[in-house]
Design brief:
- The structure is a homodimer.
- The first copy, chain A, is α/β, with parallel strands linked by helices and about 650 residues long.
- Chain A is built from 19 helices and 27 strands.
- The first copy, chain A, has four domains: about 80 residues, Ubiquitin-like (UB roll) (Roll), CATH 3.10.20; about 140 residues, Domain of unknown function (DUF4445) (Nucleotidyltransferase, domain 5), CATH 3.30.420.480; about 170 residues, no CATH class; about 100 residues, no CATH class.
- A six-stranded mixed β-sheet of chain A has the order 12-11-10-13-15-14, sandwiched between helices. Chain A has a six-stranded mixed β-sheet with strand order 26-25-16-17-18-27, sandwiched between helices.
- Chain A starts with a helix and ends with a helix.
- Chains A and B meet through helix 3, strand 7, helix 4 and strand 14 of A and helix 3, strand 5, helix 4 and strand 12 of B.
Chain lengths: ~650, ~650
């Protein structure tokens, strides 16, 4: 039956090579008869359960109706299901924790073989006989061998009584297959890690390469933060300190080793059993992780040391796992659009869709990808760190105590808000007690977006971002600071306000983001997008409605705007579990048209235009369906072009 | 002209890719005219020397009549010579110190390229643009890159002002080409080492991969000697000491590092510029060098961990050269017939000849190869270390003070001898004074062979190896020791004698050697060989006549018996300079029929037969032409078969 499945192109896994020992080729018989212990009858559709399957069933579990496809012979028409959920995970595809189905075709293949014993008449080496067995049973000819296995091959073969499981690595079609690990006896497991190295946080998943199942996930802060909060300050640190690059490389690798320990402990997996690792990150994280000086990325022409996918051994970068563990790093798209954006693209697949999709990952730079199956363009926009709560007077990272949701009563101008780590809203029972314990310490990225959008919707700030000081007469929430005004959210310990400078910082950031998006829309010749994916932590917590009120993103039906979570991490897992995805994203990255915003005259124009809130009202008809936008003098004044001209002049002043 | 040479299959080197800067494509115009600075005339056969060649000639030397073939256009018929001896070594082949011509096709290829500068509109990484340039100029597509170059590529490209020389490694046809080193500007040199790791001595050659010239050679004692003089004692040491393998591996690698330093110093070459290394050695040296436990080689079935060729990086075995330096280790033939025998086979080429050639390398084991282009067989014989002077009462290694030549007057039985480090023979003027200084300390392998052969020729020992005590009456040189007698060579300080036990040790060793040779001759179905090559130090110093008197080697015209020096080292150099030789020896080793003497009933029979001196007189008609063999009762007694029977009985007693 295994042979029939292969002929039909159905992927059924087998580690033991048809010896009925690994159990991975299990199938479920949906329609068709077979005998359990008896001889075959004329109306059976499959051979009876033979001695090998009985032996397997006696040692491990073989549920009712299941057969080992390597041992069952087809006698008549039947319907077979390749199960998705067996204990030993013999399925073709499997849903992981985030609900995504990843078809498996890992670069590592576990191959059980029985090796001929030494023969003085044919004095081939032990390794050479192992290679011959692999060629015969698994058709891997011309095998390369990791050198570290040479000193180990004799003891492993003898320990396994000449039965061993070989881990064969073959990534690209043009690669020679390579023996990377060797285990005595039948080794029925192999693992891989997928990791997204963000400037702020590092996320890692540990997955079974055989079942595709994610067995553990963990995250940690990027310890490079101690060298600089945002990317450019880390580049500066490298430029100004002789061992700055090395220090940051060591810091991130130490953090990765800690995460590997954690996912191994959580998943009950030995580091030795991790044979593959996939990493993604923005260009500067990518370079620092690989030990490459990122200085060139700090200034034009923003030259990457390497943009293509990088293949290496884990031991070459101080991540001890198995001595044969291979690392794959996704390609970077451009000097400011990294392997994380490539992985997010792989995950969300604009290049696989008919709809025009906008994919935005907001960090210190916003990485923006826009396209469909016909054409994909990408750019980055220098948003600065305001969206992450940096450079905001009461800003902080998204952590317990941070205000993440805000509503402002348009009549009283009183705020109510919700805090990370506290269940009730600030005007609900139980909040005060909880706030006593957790503390309300600042406002995070999504909170800033909401409060500024609500301030706009409540008329506290005008379309050009000025806090209306005349309202101080009406509400104690409006405070004067010298010549500008601010909005008070919390009176004490700490006092949390939104200052005029905070509004300006968000205006600059959102204008940069929108200008980048608009530039890509120009390149595509479109004036609206079909769907929007918001990636990363910011994208997870932000309410799309408020992002649209502020004009961070272009007009789009709100139900088509989705948080895509850690899309970069998902893309990394896809590349881990299926080497076909590696070729797909490599080809996609080659084809993506890279736009350098600094070289585009239109960028500046879009930027100035987008300083207003919310850019231009009539550009957001979808938004008008769900929120009541304040009436503006603007719309009465005349055409958008005139308005733009007015704003530009004002900006020059 | 370079293009024409390539079309004709003539290998003309070029590093700069036709830019007239490297000068390696120099040719000498034998017949044909060309103008030096003028315009071309109608009877010129080549274009005139243009600005590029003039520039080259002004910076480096371009001798009269020489042209750069990349810059000269053919206008008519001419005769071109590809020179063998230019200063910059632009020759196709070159004789090295041992007179051998090795055609070059190294696994490493130096490729000069000019790389496009970064362009924000096409944000390919620096490494990716380098790969594109290499693909365009040198047709290496799908290039793999050594990871260590990722952090270096940006600084090298900028240092070379976007002009760099890439070292591309491609060994087997199925390999992907691999970038292993990168230099700013034009790098016109690359080196390799070839090394034979003997149990006693290690020999290393440093060669230019571009010219083929051997720029330095050096040798050293194998420091493993402190763990055990011969191979089996080293295996025992490993078996009895938990860190014995590691200690011996470290010892040999340290010695290799010392030799690399020495050849680099002698040749004025930086370790960084060594990009390839080839190693050979007997199976136990091979395993210890690679860090493999040799215990399995200590007993049947004598299983090698690996018999095929081994590819690795020098950095994997603690031999720091360039970070990209690759190591190639020749295949082993069998458990006791190593990569050194394979290299000697490659060097002497029995498999390329019509004549039936015997190739013998004598160490603790004798490695024996016998064959011609139709069939090659190989075996090892357990000679023990007697031929190396071990287990001989006055034996020592070949070093100053060792007796290496001996003649015995058949009438007076007085010896005369020659000592390493002393020019005159012992009966010539000046010897005494020199001996005073150097000291006469013992007798080395070649001396032992000669003295025992001379003792036999002088009638001091019988054909069954007994020292004739009755001669004590006639000569003070015959001394009694208990029940046996010995022969005195030097009376004092130290006293040097050949004892009955010494004769027995040599008898055992030579019987083992001859029995192995005879077994292979049986396999080939021959009763004589066409030529004999004696490899190694022992083969260099031994006089073939005496080897034949003792019956170490079968009968053969004496002018067809040659010392082949360090044939293993020469084979290693061939594999270093031309990867085609790697494929040749790999295929040859696969085809060689391996004979395990321990499994052959005939071996024991041949061994017993060969205990006599010189085996059987009438088996050596060639020898009878050059020495007067003593008359023997044997030849009068009857047929050889009877004689053999008699000896066998005696041996049983």
């Amino acid at each position: 039956m295994l042979e029939a499945a292969r002929q039909l192109g159905v992927y059924v896994e087998s580690v033991c090579g048809g010896r009925a020992t690994c159990g991975r080729c299990q199938v479920s018989v949906q329609e068709g008869n077979f005998a359990k212990h008896k001889i075959v009858s004329s109306n059976d559709h499959l051979s009876s359960i033979g001695p090998k399957e009985q032996r397997y069933a006696s040692i491990r579990e073989l549920p009712e109706g299941r057969r080992l496809s390597c041992s069952a012979h087809i006698l008549g028409d039947l319907v077979i299901d390749v199960p998705q959920d067996t204990v030993i995970n013999a399925q073709v595809v499997r849903k992981d924790s985030d609900g995504r189905v990843i078809e498996r075709d890992a670069a590592v293949h576990m191959c059980y073989v029985e090796v001929e014993e030494p023969d003085m008449h044919k004095p081939l080496g032990d390794l050479d006989r192992l290679k011959a067995a692999i060629a015969t049973d698994w058709k891997y000819e011309n095998l390369e061998v990791d050198f570290h296995l040479n000193p180990r091959v004799q003891s492993v073969l003898r320990k396994g009584d000449w039965k061993v499981t070989a881990a064969i690595h073959k990534d690209e079609g043009s690669d020679r297959p390579r023996l990377v690990a060797l285990y005595p006896g039948l080794k029925n497991e192999a693992y891989g890690i997928a990791c997204d190295i963000g400037s702020t946080t590092i996320a890692m998943h540990l997955s079974s390469l055989l079942s595709g199942r994610t067995v553990a996930s963990a995250g940690a802060s990027n310890p490079q933060i101690r060298f600089g909060e945002d990317l450019m300050s880390r580049v500066s640190y490298v430029m100004m300190n002789p061992d700055g690059r090395e220090g940051m490389t060591n810091a991130v690798r130490e953090a990765l080793n800690g995460l590997i320990d954690k996912v191994c402990a959580d998943g009950g997996v030995s580091r030795e059993d991790i044979l593959e690792a996939v990493f993604v990150g923005n260009p500067i994280m990518h370079h620092l992780f690989l030990g490459i000086d990122p200085t060139e990325l700090g200034g034009a022409p923003f030259a990457l040391a390497v943009s293509g996918a990088v293949h290496l051994k884990a031991s070459e970068i101080g991540l001890p796992m198995n001595a044969g563990t291979r690392v794959y790093v996704l390609p970077c798209i451009a000097g400011h659009v990294g392997a994380d954006a490539a992985a997010a693209t792989l995950s969300e697949g604009p290049h696989r869709q008919d709809e025009m999709m906008l994919l935005v990952d907001i960090g210190t730079n916003a990485e923006i990808v826009l396209g469909n199956r016909h054409r994909v363009v990408a750019a980055s926009s220098p948003t600065g760190p305001a969206f992450e709560g940096a450079e905001i007077s009461s800003g902080q990272r998204a952590a317990p105590g941070a205000i993440e949701r805000v509503r402002i009563d348009p009549v009283t101008l009183e705020p109510r808000f919700r805090v990370i780590g506290i269940e009730p809203w600030s005007d609900e029972p139980g909040f005060a007690e909880a706030a006593e314990k957790v503390g309300v310490t600042g406002i995070c990225g999504s909170g800033i977006i909401e409060v500024i959008a609500e301030m706009y919707l409540a008329g506290i700030i005008s379309e050009d971002g000025v806090v209306d000081g005349s309202l101080a007469a009406r509400s104690p929430r409006i405070l004067q600071n010298g010549r500008t005004f601010s909005y008070l959210i919390q009176q004490g310990e700490p006092r949390i306000t939104i200052t005029q400078n905070d509004v300006r910082a968000i205006q600059l950031a959102k204008a940069a983001l929108y200008a980048g998006v608009k530039l890509l829309m120009d390149k595509q010749g479109i004036d609206h997008v079909d769907r929007i994916g918001l990636a990363g932590a910011f994208g997870t917590f932000i309410d799309p409605k408020y992002a649209m009120v502020l004009g961070l993103i272009p007009d789009c039906p709100l139900d088509k705007v989705k948080s895509v979570g850690n899309a970069a991490g998902t893309g990394a897992r896809m590349a881990l579990l299926n080497r076909g995805y590696r070729r797909e994203i490599e080809e996609t990255v080659r084809k993506i048209e890279k736009i350098e915003t600094a070289l585009e005259a239109k960028f500046q124009e879009h930027f100035v235009y987008a300083m207003a809130l919310p850019n231009k009202v009539d550009a957001f008809p979808e938004l008008a369906k769900v929120v009541t936008l304040p009436e503006r003098k603007m719309s009465a004044e005349g055409s958008g072009d005139e308005g733009t001209g007015r704003r530009r002049r004002r900006n020059r002043e």
